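Key result, reporting period 2: structure in, sequence out.
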């Protein structure tokens, strides 16, 4: 899809919302679900199932037998996900201000950093839900904005991939 087609689709979305009386001046966000983007207002985000840090911690405990490690005393909510055998990180859950990621918003958001092959990372990064790795090697790491990631999606495959890449 080229940029002209994207503008036409955006125009049609706006026209639809105006004609149906559901237009709002509230800030819009975008949710990616199974390869498609859906515009949503911030107040609608809670209506959708969102991935949480607790979901991640439960998954890695059940799948890999690992628990989060909190290595930074100044950043007590930053949780490293480490291999038990060699203590290498395969993930890092952090709470950061959106502006640090080039996003809009004033409240901290949870992100998950995962290692990813560069050829896959480039195709996953969309600038909204999946970004270059925050405070990591941007070529080999990605950051997922947890509240915008579908818990039924492929996130657990990405965690497994990161786990395998960091053995």
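The corresponding designed sequence is given below.
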């Amino acid at each position: 899809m080229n940029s002209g087609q994207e503008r036409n689709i955006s125009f049609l979305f706006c026209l639809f919302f105006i004609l149906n009386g559901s237009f709002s001046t509230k800030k819009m966000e975008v949710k990616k679900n199974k390869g498609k983007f859906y515009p949503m207002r911030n107040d609608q985000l809670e209506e959708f199932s969102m991935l949480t840090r607790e979901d991640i911690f439960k998954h890695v405990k059940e799948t890999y037998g690992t628990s989060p490690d909190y290595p930074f005393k100044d950043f007590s909510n930053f949780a490293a996900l480490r291999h038990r055998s060699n203590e290498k990180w395969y993930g890092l859950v952090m709470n950061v201000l959106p502006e640090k990621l080039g996003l809009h918003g004033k409240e901290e958001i949870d992100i998950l950093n995962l290692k990813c092959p560069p050829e896959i990372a480039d195709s996953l990064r969309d600038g909204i839900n999946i970004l270059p790795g925050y405070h990591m090697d941007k070529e080999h790491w990605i950051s997922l904005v947890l509240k915008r990631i579908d818990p039924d999606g492929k996130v657990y495959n990405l965690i497994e991939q990161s786990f395998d890449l960091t053995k």
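Helices lie at 3-19, 53-64, 118-124, 155-165. Residues 3-47 form one domain. This case is discussed further under Risks and Mitigation.
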